[in-house]
Amino acid sequence: MRYQITGKQIDIGEALQTHVRTELGSTLDKYAGRPTDATVIFSKSAHEYVCEAIVHLSTGLTTQARGHSTEIYAALDQCVEKMDKQLRRYKRRLKDHHKERSQPVELSGASSYILAASGESEDSEPENLQPIIVAEMETNIPSISVGEAVMQMEIAGAPVLVFRNEGNKNVNVVYMREDGNIGWIDPASS
Fold first, then answer.
1. 186 by DSSP, 3-state: which?
2. Which of 84, 63, 80, 64 is nearest to 72 (CA)?
3. Domain parsing of the chain, residue ranges
4. What does the pLDDT read at residue 98?
5. Strands 133-144 and 160-165: what pairing?
6. In this predicted structure, what is the pLDDT of residue 189?
7. What is the dihedral of CA 141, 25, 87, 159, to 10 degrees?
8. What is the largest CA-CA distance in the chain?
9. pLDDT tens digits, residue range 84-96?
10. Antiparallel, parallel or unpaired: β 48-57 and 35-45
11. What does pTM read for this prediction?
């Protein structure tokens, strides 16, 4: 597994990097089986240290957790504990999908854009219907089942997830509805 351990305006020593590999590695070995890479970022917010971990699994699942404390090691331990709780919650589903899938999830590249807010009141009409692009990024669209997409969305805490449905190869969307249920958009194939 590849680890990318960095600090935002903080020097990360070898002892902390070893501790990250040991603690995070043992948690991932318990539940995940074949993690591919982990990104751990340490930063400081006022008097607290913040540890944010993002782990990509070979099943296509991306899990992330965040911990904060006045001590940097305690922030890491809190982050790992949250990730452990997430993975434990989905352990059965992770193991089921892990057995069914012999190859890592196929990812398709896509462009992602951030558009500027209009800044106008709701009553006035916009001068121009062309949005202003603030940022352009690359993103990946996983080829997974609907069940895996729902699990991915719940673990990431995201309100929406775009994915390629393994069943029909169409681009689908799952989203969290205001009533607490999950919506699924499956466009009709032409």
1. coil
2. 80
3. 2-99, 105-185
4. 46
5. parallel
6. 58
7. -40
8. 58
9. 888 887 776 655 5
10. antiparallel
11. 0.62
